[in-house]
Amino acid sequence: MLNVLLVEDNLDLAETVIDYLALEFVSCDFSSNGMAGLQRIEQNQYDVILLDLNLPILDGLRLCERIRANGNDTPVLMITARDQLDDKVTGFKAGADDYMVKPFELRELVARIRALSKRRSGQARILRCGDLEMNLNTRTVTRAGQDIKLTPISWHLLETLLRASPEVVSRQKLISGTWGDAPPDSDSLKVHLFHLRKAIDGPFSNSLLHTIVGHGFAIRESAKQ
To answer: What is the pTM (predicted TM-score) of this model?
Structure first.
């Protein structure tokens, strides 16, 4: 069952959404203001966050910006009566992944929730696994507080792996995500992964970059998941 959070100050709408989601086997937590929503997000794991913009105490844009600044990569679907293009652009800049304008069809809401739940947000600006942190705003990588210097190729590989973490990334996806339509020779990925592993794992006792035989590669705290 999917687990989502609805942050919405319209109690009638919230009740309608929660009841409908339950019929679709989607569990839904609820907060009526932005600060309460932030607290739930910090305390729980959700598949998708449904976020109104006009919220008391902490509005939806500021809430979204705060969770992205904290490295939270849960997909965010903004739900609002604001229907202008500028409003949508502002929402996406704040870190939203999708946008629905009120009033909306509940069937479409469920379809979008299911689609978003299959991936992590590409809007997160801080990516972490254990004591490894990649900050896309400052273009820095640290592990246990130590700075790690990466080549541009290693940076792209690490970002792709961290965005998927702890899931496995196939060899082909790593190649296409790093080199696009101009793939290198067959040994290049192997060489660059060797250098990446040396940079992020070499000085430390436990490895985070794992080869999952027959499947691909993963950044995770344990080879087994």
So the answer is: 0.65
